[in-house]
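Quick sanity check, Ribosomal RNA small subunit methyltransferase E:
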Amino acid sequence: LHIDAPFAAGQSAALSGDQAHYLRGVLRQTPGDRLLAFNEAGGEWLADIATLAKSAGTVTLLEQVRAPAAAGPDIWLLFAPLKGGRTEYVVEKATELGAARLCPVLTRRGDVPRVNLDRLRANAVEAAEQCERLSVPVVEPLADLAAVLARWPADPLTQDRPLFVAAETGAARPLAAAVTAATASGGKAAFLVGPEGGFHPDELDRLAKTPFVVPVGLGPRILRADTAAFAVLAVWQALTGD
Ligand code: SAM
Protein backbone atom coordinates (compact mmCIF):
# COMPACT_ATOMS: atom_id res chain seq x y z
CA LEU A 1 0.00 0.00 0.00
CA HIS A 2 1.20 3.51 -0.83
CA ILE A 3 1.33 5.47 2.42
CA ASP A 4 2.58 9.02 2.20
CA ALA A 5 4.20 9.37 5.64
CA PRO A 6 7.71 9.29 7.11
CA PHE A 7 8.81 5.67 7.61
CA ALA A 8 10.76 4.57 10.71
CA ALA A 9 10.73 1.43 12.85
CA GLY A 10 7.90 1.64 15.36
CA GLN A 11 6.38 4.62 13.55
CA SER A 12 2.61 4.69 13.25
CA ALA A 13 1.03 5.74 9.94
CA ALA A 14 -2.59 6.33 8.99
CA LEU A 15 -4.45 4.44 6.27
CA SER A 16 -6.73 6.30 3.89
CA GLY A 17 -10.44 5.57 4.05
CA ASP A 18 -10.26 3.61 0.80
CA GLN A 19 -7.29 1.60 2.05
CA ALA A 20 -9.05 0.77 5.33
CA HIS A 21 -12.18 -0.27 3.43
CA TYR A 22 -10.14 -2.42 1.03
CA LEU A 23 -8.17 -4.13 3.80
CA ARG A 24 -11.14 -4.70 6.09
CA GLY A 25 -14.03 -5.08 3.70
CA VAL A 26 -12.38 -6.78 0.74
CA LEU A 27 -9.33 -8.60 2.12
CA ARG A 28 -10.96 -9.30 5.51
CA GLN A 29 -7.78 -8.23 7.29
CA THR A 30 -7.74 -7.60 11.04
CA PRO A 31 -5.34 -5.87 13.46
CA GLY A 32 -2.16 -7.88 13.76
CA ASP A 33 -2.15 -8.87 10.09
CA ARG A 34 0.90 -7.80 8.09
CA LEU A 35 1.20 -5.78 4.90
CA LEU A 36 3.82 -4.00 2.82
CA ALA A 37 3.76 -0.20 2.82
CA PHE A 38 5.78 1.93 0.39
CA ASN A 39 6.55 5.44 -0.65
CA GLU A 40 9.21 7.18 -2.71
CA ALA A 41 11.34 8.34 0.22
CA GLY A 42 10.99 5.34 2.52
CA GLY A 43 11.09 2.44 0.11
CA GLU A 44 9.06 -0.63 1.09
CA TRP A 45 8.44 -1.62 4.73
CA LEU A 46 6.85 -4.54 6.51
CA ALA A 47 4.06 -3.21 8.72
CA ASP A 48 1.50 -4.51 11.18
CA ILE A 49 -2.10 -3.38 11.02
CA ALA A 50 -2.55 -1.70 14.40
CA THR A 51 -6.17 -0.50 14.18
CA LEU A 52 -8.72 -1.12 11.46
CA ALA A 53 -12.25 0.23 11.28
CA LYS A 54 -14.69 0.59 8.39
CA SER A 55 -13.04 3.66 6.93
CA ALA A 56 -9.97 4.35 9.04
CA GLY A 57 -6.97 2.52 10.34
CA THR A 58 -3.34 2.71 11.31
CA VAL A 59 -0.28 0.57 10.73
CA THR A 60 2.92 0.23 12.73
CA LEU A 61 6.04 0.14 10.58
CA LEU A 62 8.40 -2.69 11.45
CA GLU A 63 11.37 -2.96 9.08
CA GLN A 64 12.47 -1.86 5.64
CA VAL A 65 12.41 -4.69 3.09
CA ARG A 66 13.27 -2.67 -0.04
CA ALA A 67 15.35 0.48 -0.18
CA PRO A 68 13.90 3.52 -1.94
CA ALA A 69 14.00 2.87 -5.66
CA ALA A 70 16.56 4.65 -7.76
CA ALA A 71 14.70 7.22 -9.81
CA GLY A 72 12.91 5.45 -12.64
CA PRO A 73 12.85 6.75 -16.18
CA ASP A 74 12.43 10.52 -16.24
CA ILE A 75 9.64 10.33 -18.79
CA TRP A 76 6.60 12.57 -19.09
CA LEU A 77 3.51 11.54 -21.01
CA LEU A 78 1.35 14.39 -22.29
CA PHE A 79 -1.89 13.11 -23.73
CA ALA A 80 -5.36 14.21 -24.71
CA PRO A 81 -7.98 12.74 -22.35
CA LEU A 82 -10.10 10.01 -23.93
CA LYS A 83 -13.73 8.95 -23.60
CA GLY A 84 -15.11 5.91 -21.86
CA GLY A 85 -12.65 5.26 -19.11
CA ARG A 86 -9.71 5.11 -21.50
CA THR A 87 -8.03 8.04 -19.76
CA GLU A 88 -7.88 5.96 -16.56
CA TYR A 89 -6.52 3.10 -18.64
CA VAL A 90 -3.76 5.32 -20.08
CA VAL A 91 -2.82 6.41 -16.55
CA GLU A 92 -2.70 2.79 -15.38
CA LYS A 93 -0.56 1.55 -18.31
CA ALA A 94 1.74 4.59 -18.26
CA THR A 95 2.36 3.95 -14.55
CA GLU A 96 3.20 0.31 -15.26
CA LEU A 97 5.56 1.42 -18.03
CA GLY A 98 7.42 3.74 -15.68
CA ALA A 99 6.21 7.24 -16.59
CA ALA A 100 7.24 9.83 -13.98
CA ARG A 101 4.71 12.54 -14.84
CA LEU A 102 1.34 12.40 -16.60
CA CYS A 103 -0.10 15.58 -18.10
CA PRO A 104 -3.61 15.55 -19.55
CA VAL A 105 -3.66 18.13 -22.38
CA LEU A 106 -6.69 19.96 -23.80
CA THR A 107 -6.48 20.09 -27.61
CA ARG A 108 -8.75 21.64 -30.27
CA ARG A 109 -10.10 18.28 -31.42
CA GLY A 110 -9.98 16.60 -28.03
CA ASP A 111 -13.43 15.39 -27.07
CA VAL A 112 -13.05 15.25 -23.29
CA PRO A 113 -13.10 18.71 -21.68
CA ARG A 114 -12.68 17.61 -18.07
CA VAL A 115 -10.84 14.98 -16.04
CA ASN A 116 -11.42 13.70 -12.52
CA LEU A 117 -7.96 14.40 -11.13
CA ASP A 118 -8.57 12.60 -7.81
CA ARG A 119 -9.69 9.53 -9.72
CA LEU A 120 -6.65 9.63 -12.01
CA ARG A 121 -4.32 10.05 -9.05
CA ALA A 122 -5.97 7.08 -7.32
CA ASN A 123 -5.51 5.08 -10.55
CA ALA A 124 -1.81 5.92 -10.51
CA VAL A 125 -1.44 4.79 -6.87
CA GLU A 126 -3.33 1.54 -7.54
CA ALA A 127 -1.21 0.83 -10.61
CA ALA A 128 2.02 1.57 -8.72
CA GLU A 129 0.91 -0.83 -5.96
CA GLN A 130 0.07 -3.51 -8.53
CA CYS A 131 3.32 -3.27 -10.50
CA GLU A 132 5.39 -2.89 -7.32
CA ARG A 133 7.10 0.30 -8.38
CA LEU A 134 8.10 2.33 -5.34
CA SER A 135 7.14 5.66 -6.84
CA VAL A 136 3.82 7.05 -7.98
CA PRO A 137 3.77 9.24 -11.09
CA VAL A 138 2.77 12.86 -10.67
CA VAL A 139 -0.61 13.44 -12.35
CA GLU A 140 -1.02 17.08 -13.32
CA PRO A 141 -4.27 18.99 -13.73
CA LEU A 142 -5.66 19.28 -17.27
CA ALA A 143 -3.93 22.13 -19.14
CA ASP A 144 -4.41 23.44 -22.66
CA LEU A 145 -1.74 22.72 -25.23
CA ALA A 146 -0.54 26.34 -25.39
CA ALA A 147 0.04 26.42 -21.62
CA VAL A 148 1.92 23.13 -21.80
CA LEU A 149 4.21 24.37 -24.58
CA ALA A 150 4.77 27.63 -22.68
CA ARG A 151 6.46 25.67 -19.93
CA TRP A 152 9.47 25.07 -22.18
CA PRO A 153 12.13 26.18 -21.38
CA ALA A 154 11.16 28.48 -18.47
CA ASP A 155 10.14 25.59 -16.18
CA PRO A 156 13.36 24.10 -14.74
CA LEU A 157 11.82 20.63 -15.09
CA THR A 158 11.82 21.10 -18.86
CA GLN A 159 15.54 21.86 -19.11
CA ASP A 160 17.24 19.43 -21.51
CA ARG A 161 13.94 17.65 -21.96
CA PRO A 162 13.02 17.11 -25.61
CA LEU A 163 9.32 17.10 -26.37
CA PHE A 164 8.67 14.21 -28.74
CA VAL A 165 5.37 14.67 -30.53
CA ALA A 166 3.79 11.56 -31.96
CA ALA A 167 2.97 12.70 -35.48
CA GLU A 168 1.39 10.30 -37.91
CA THR A 169 1.76 12.69 -40.81
CA GLY A 170 4.60 14.81 -42.11
CA ALA A 171 8.31 14.49 -41.47
CA ALA A 172 8.95 12.54 -38.32
CA ARG A 173 11.98 10.69 -36.97
CA PRO A 174 11.57 7.00 -36.21
CA LEU A 175 10.87 6.83 -32.49
CA ALA A 176 13.67 4.38 -31.74
CA ALA A 177 16.32 6.75 -33.12
CA ALA A 178 14.86 9.65 -31.14
CA VAL A 179 14.78 7.63 -27.92
CA THR A 180 18.36 6.45 -28.42
CA ALA A 181 19.47 10.05 -28.90
CA ALA A 182 17.55 11.20 -25.81
CA THR A 183 18.94 8.45 -23.60
CA ALA A 184 22.44 9.33 -24.77
CA SER A 185 21.93 12.97 -23.79
CA GLY A 186 20.65 12.74 -20.24
CA GLY A 187 17.71 10.37 -20.36
CA LYS A 188 14.94 12.93 -19.99
CA ALA A 189 12.01 13.15 -22.37
CA ALA A 190 8.40 14.19 -22.75
CA PHE A 191 6.04 12.52 -25.20
CA LEU A 192 2.94 14.26 -26.52
CA VAL A 193 0.19 12.19 -28.11
CA GLY A 194 -2.75 13.82 -29.82
CA PRO A 195 -6.48 13.19 -29.45
CA GLU A 196 -8.44 10.63 -31.41
CA GLY A 197 -9.28 13.31 -33.97
CA GLY A 198 -5.64 14.25 -34.37
CA PHE A 199 -3.99 17.63 -33.82
CA HIS A 200 -5.69 20.62 -35.43
CA PRO A 201 -3.67 22.12 -38.34
CA ASP A 202 -3.07 25.24 -36.22
CA GLU A 203 -1.63 23.04 -33.49
CA LEU A 204 0.58 21.16 -35.96
CA ASP A 205 1.77 24.50 -37.31
CA ARG A 206 2.59 25.75 -33.80
CA LEU A 207 4.36 22.50 -32.91
CA ALA A 208 6.40 22.68 -36.13
CA LYS A 209 7.57 26.16 -35.09
CA THR A 210 8.51 25.10 -31.55
CA PRO A 211 12.29 24.52 -31.37
CA PHE A 212 12.39 21.81 -28.69
CA VAL A 213 9.69 19.72 -30.37
CA VAL A 214 10.83 16.54 -32.13
CA PRO A 215 8.16 14.89 -34.31
CA VAL A 216 8.38 11.09 -34.01
CA GLY A 217 6.75 8.43 -36.13
CA LEU A 218 5.26 5.18 -34.86
CA GLY A 219 5.11 3.27 -38.12
CA PRO A 220 2.88 3.31 -41.17
CA ARG A 221 -0.49 2.67 -39.50
CA ILE A 222 -2.77 5.12 -37.73
CA LEU A 223 -2.77 4.09 -34.07
CA ARG A 224 -5.54 4.90 -31.61
CA ALA A 225 -4.38 7.62 -29.22
CA ASP A 226 -4.05 5.21 -26.29
CA THR A 227 -2.15 2.72 -28.44
CA ALA A 228 0.27 5.48 -29.45
CA ALA A 229 0.78 6.41 -25.79
CA PHE A 230 1.59 2.83 -24.84
CA ALA A 231 3.84 2.42 -27.87
CA VAL A 232 6.08 5.39 -27.05
CA LEU A 233 6.53 4.28 -23.44
CA ALA A 234 7.08 0.65 -24.36
CA VAL A 235 9.74 1.59 -26.92
CA TRP A 236 11.51 3.73 -24.30
CA GLN A 237 11.37 0.89 -21.78
CA ALA A 238 12.54 -1.66 -24.34
CA LEU A 239 15.51 0.46 -25.42
CA THR A 240 16.59 1.62 -21.97
CA GLY A 241 15.58 -1.32 -19.81
CA ASP A 242 14.27 1.17 -17.23
N1 SAM B 1 -4.74 12.23 -37.37
C1 SAM B 1 -5.74 11.18 -37.49
C2 SAM B 1 -7.10 11.83 -37.55
O1 SAM B 1 -7.11 12.97 -37.95
O2 SAM B 1 -8.07 11.18 -37.25
C3 SAM B 1 -5.66 10.14 -36.37
C4 SAM B 1 -5.15 10.61 -35.04
S1 SAM B 1 -4.60 9.22 -34.10
C5 SAM B 1 -6.10 8.34 -33.89
C6 SAM B 1 -4.35 9.89 -32.49
C7 SAM B 1 -2.92 10.30 -32.18
O3 SAM B 1 -2.09 9.14 -32.09
C8 SAM B 1 -2.28 11.19 -33.20
O4 SAM B 1 -2.60 12.55 -32.97
C9 SAM B 1 -0.80 10.91 -32.97
O5 SAM B 1 -0.34 11.69 -31.88
C10 SAM B 1 -0.78 9.45 -32.58
N2 SAM B 1 -0.47 8.55 -33.69
C11 SAM B 1 -1.31 7.66 -34.27
N3 SAM B 1 -0.68 6.94 -35.21
C12 SAM B 1 0.61 7.39 -35.25
C13 SAM B 1 1.76 7.06 -36.03
N4 SAM B 1 1.74 6.10 -36.97
N5 SAM B 1 2.90 7.75 -35.81
C14 SAM B 1 2.95 8.73 -34.85
N6 SAM B 1 1.89 9.08 -34.09
C15 SAM B 1 0.73 8.42 -34.29
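Posting the structure with no commentary besides this: The chain has a mean pLDDT of 93.
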